[in-house]
Fold each of these.
Amino acid sequence: MTYDFDLFVIGGGSGGVRCARIAAGHGARVAVAEERFWGGTCVNVGCVPKKLFVMAAEYGNSAADAKGFGWNLGPATHDWSALIGEKNVEIARLNGIYVKLLTGVGITIFEKKAVFIDPHTLDVGGERVTAERIVIATGGRPVMPPFVGAEHVIVSDDAFFLKQFPKRVVLLGGGYISVEFAGIFQGLGAQVDLVMRQKLPLRGFDEDLRTGLAEELTNSGIRLHAEVAVREVTARGDIKTVHLADGTTIEADLCFAAIGRAPYVAGLGLDNAGVAIDAKGAVTVDTTSATNVAHIYAIGDVTDRLNLTPVAIAEGHSLAEALYGNGPRHWDLERVATGVFSSPPIGTVGLTEAQAAARGPADIYLSRFTPMRHTLTGRARKTLVKLVVDQATQRVLGAHKLGDDAPEIIQGISIAINCGAAKADFDRTVGVHPTAAEEFVTLRTRTRVAGG
């Protein structure tokens, strides 16, 4: 059978675009459909604008800290509408770049929703299109809360388009989106309350990081409400009241739910193609990104495996190479570094202490200290550096940092860990002084042994 395209990618986010570009580079006839915005969540309502907001908040903190270094800057004010305007300009620029990346290599683009008619046929905005192979790369969407009054709550997609800056914010959830926006709003001048079901934020992260971040959030003035659920949210005019299960009520100008994300499969017609999904609605795939239908694949957050933009890009690249190139590239997803742009930020790679201990005895090296900057600013902020080492082999299994520039630092550390570095390799590396990063190579005294 002759098809309109060799490969059709549903979703113009980072993973889908990379897959399409690599396949086209190998000579495949490729099309991409995007119903919402080019670049996907990360570029438009995720990583990129969020990082810009984090930077905006950091400028305020730096202005306040400057006095410790002899600067007299006077009272600082922030123009929220100006930030939104500059952010919109930058995102529009990036949208254009994504389109050029696709059209520049001969890829056909559809700015419409693609829906399966059958395993090889799609309805793309009313046009019938066929493809030999199809990749589902539709990402995820924020989960709406189930409690009464959810209509008074925004989700992360909405936060980037607020017309007015809220002076009082309640954040619901203890995940990375919640803690990041807590730092953003607090840094820009809002009073922030963070409500979470867990005792500590960032479930699944190393316990020392979780504990350290909770202390830093509290020290910054963010009010934590731990181990409590939301009963309902009510509104009186522009004022929202959050009613907690323990009887506490919190009034705010904005209630922001960051309770998770779900794979975006709504309306794709997966049943028409026979594509299987799991109980959480994620497209089921094997290690090669293949679904249960031989020629249909899925990558990125829609599979709900490791929901990080670079992972989606890696999956897309690997899949395209496997289908049209010289074989797949391989990534070790157990040692993927990630950053949380909280205030202060987190960088982490590899196993947590608990994960390592479950496999056998692990040597733990930990240091917590006041960074040089804050010895002069007086800000109550600590840096935490931690290595998790397999006791038997002395291989470094995990590295974790809470503190300024942690995501930048952990990228370099992740290369060493992916190369199988041992603790002795860290010990014989000369540090860069004076930096916080040098702590990773000066951790000489074991703090404790975990597991065994």
Amino acid sequence: MDKFDYDLFVIGAGSGGVRASRIAASLGARVAVAEAYRPGGTCVIRGCVPKKLMVYAAHFHEDFEDARGYGWTVPEANFSWPVLMAAKNREIARLEGIYEKLLANAGVTLMRGRATLADAHTVEIDGKRITAKNILIATGGWPAKPAIPGAELGITSNEAFELTDLPKRVLMVGGGYIAVEFAGIFHGLGAEVTLSYRGEEILRGFDDDVRKHLRGELEAKGIKVLLGHQVAAIERNGPGLRVRCAKGAPDLTVDAVMFATGRIPNTANLGLQQAGVKLDDGGAVVVDAFSRTSVENIYAVGDVTDRVQLTPVAIREGNAVAQTLFGARPVSVTHNNIPSAVFSQPPIGTVGDTEAQALAKYGQVEVYQSTFRPMKHTLSGRGEKSYMKLLVEPNTQKVVGVHMVGGDAPEIIQGIGIAVVAGLTKQQFDETVGIHPTAAEEFVTMKEKVLRQA
């Protein structure tokens, strides 16, 4: 008779939890997964999928304008926020159903409700206790709000996906990828957008030239960017909001304030510490290279570990845990050279080191870069410019970082990421024939370099 009810119990049916569940079940394990909200997690339900749909929607106002330069007569367009929200909700419901079927077809038991740890081998859900040989924590993250008066009057990305009406004036608080993405979404759909960031430049952690270039493009589109700016308090002002600003900056009057001020690991009140699971100072689950926590049979993957907050990374980590537990050998996940994208307008694609990181590692780096007006805009008349950057380690000539701001950057960088992970050299880039006319060919035709020292 089995000692435990399940071989693996997963808390959280997001991208990492679902992947771990399916792979573990395919390897013969008895698996259950608990979900307190909707299967699909942050990415599918209130993250990258609905956000990308809204980015598509926001792009159309420029597409209509650009069409005139190509001879099209476009009638005045009207946008309906309720129609977009209804279409988005239908698609999210469809994807949620797919996730449920994937779990069922894999033989995974899906339990609805909030699960907490009673001890290292026991979870409690809706008053029922269930035992498991192994437990996986995959509860993701949650948007954070600053501790200022009136913060409850602001929204986060969670609520932005459920607004019944499009705000006319939006203050975006934050300077990370979520902030610049939603600034572009609201602006593209017709709102007046101001972005407030306390730092010296948006997108901390990205390449400095990329940061500067994107800010210039946002401002050129009409988004007001306030750097070194802090919100001190929010209060009701008739139907809108009055925002009190720090350091003597003038007050702002808006219809909505959206906080994009970071995400915190979703570990509160899960019983983790009582079970002996170690958390760091930020509340993230501490894990080793194999995603094992301080308790031998408890693992954690995805945003709850605060390693790399990207859906494909959570999926890979979940797969690795399943293989480690029920496969032929332990599997770890490398977190180096992960391609990523920011679906700003224009978008960013990046892989490998920033210039600052390359200088810190190698002491010097060869920099190739190009700024140009995309071919599309020679007739549209739009002033938007693309930016590309290659970073090369001088001794080995390996390409150690690639960055792009411009149309289709995420699609282009996905392919370039393979080359960087493979350790290809600048010579091999140069030997590759470009596809003409494309923006991507610029990456294999760059000739002029600058050697920069740490």
